[in-house]
Amino acid sequence: MFKKILFAIVLIAIALFGYTKVMARISLAEPPRAAPSEQQADAIRVEKANRQMTLLRDGKTIGTYQISLGSNGDGGHKQREGDEKTPEGRYIIDWRNPRSMAHLSLHISYPNENDKQAAAAAGHAPGGNIMIHGLPNGWGWLASVHRLWDWTDGCIAVTDAEMRDIWARVPNGTPIEILP
C-alpha cells in the first residue's frame, strides 16, 4: 500500500513539474498596449514590510497592488545570488519580457554598482534577473492564494490581471524605489 501511495505522489510531482515546464514556454496572450501617457507612472514605490507596490504620477498614487516577494522577503536587502531576498534601494525598470516564464515581466536594474561592490567584497556574485511579474504561465488560477506566502526567488509578484495593468502603465526608464 505504501509503495502505491509513494508511486502516486511521485507521479503527481512529475506531472506538475512537466506542466510547469511546458507552460513556462507558452505565453497565452499578447501583452497589452501602452496606456495613454496621462495614465502612465513616472515612479514606483515598493514597501516590502507592507507587501505593497504603488504606481505614482506627479507624486500621486495611480495604482496600488498587494505583492509577494522573495521567499526570504523579510531577510533584508539582497546581498548575493541565491539568497532569495528582494533587493532594497533605487533602481530603474530597464527592459521588459513579454514571453517570460511568468505572465509578462519588467526587469529591475539590480544589481547597481553599490550592490556589485558589496557582493564582491563579501566574495559572492550579486545575483540578478530581478523582475516584477505575474504568476508562472499556466498557474494564473492561483491568483486568489499566491499572496498568502512569499514564494519568488527575489522578484516582486502580482496577479496576471494586475501585471497586464502594470505592463501598460509602466514604461521602460521608470524609477523604482524598494523600501524595507
Automatic annotation (TrEMBL):
<dbReference type="GO" id="GO:0008360">
    <property type="term" value="P:regulation of cell shape"/>
</dbReference>
<dbReference type="InterPro" id="IPR005490">
    <property type="entry name" value="LD_TPept_cat_dom"/>
</dbReference>
<feature type="active site" description="Proton donor/acceptor">
    <location>
        <position position="133"/>
    </location>
</feature>
<dbReference type="Pfam" id="PF03734">
    <property type="entry name" value="YkuD"/>
</dbReference>
<comment type="similarity">
    <text>Belongs to the YkuD family.</text>
</comment>
<dbReference type="GO" id="GO:0004180">
    <property type="term" value="F:carboxypeptidase activity"/>
</dbReference>
<keyword id="KW-0573">Peptidoglycan synthesis</keyword>
<dbReference type="GO" id="GO:0071555">
    <property type="term" value="P:cell wall organization"/>
</dbReference>
<comment type="pathway">
    <text>Cell wall biogenesis; peptidoglycan biosynthesis.</text>
</comment>
<feature type="active site" description="Nucleophile">
    <location>
        <position position="155"/>
    </location>
</feature>
<keyword id="KW-0961">Cell wall biogenesis/degradation</keyword>
<feature type="domain" description="L,D-TPase catalytic">
    <location>
        <begin position="42"/>
        <end position="179"/>
    </location>
</feature>
<dbReference type="GO" id="GO:0016740">
    <property type="term" value="F:transferase activity"/>
</dbReference>
<dbReference type="InterPro" id="IPR038063">
    <property type="entry name" value="Transpep_catalytic_dom"/>
</dbReference>
<keyword id="KW-0133">Cell shape</keyword>
<protein>
    <submittedName>
        <fullName>L,D-transpeptidase family protein</fullName>
    </submittedName>
</protein>
<feature type="region of interest" description="Disordered">
    <location>
        <begin position="67"/>
        <end position="86"/>
    </location>
</feature>
<keyword id="KW-0808">Transferase</keyword>
<feature type="compositionally biased region" description="Basic and acidic residues">
    <location>
        <begin position="75"/>
        <end position="86"/>
    </location>
</feature>
<dbReference type="GO" id="GO:0009252">
    <property type="term" value="P:peptidoglycan biosynthetic process"/>
</dbReference>
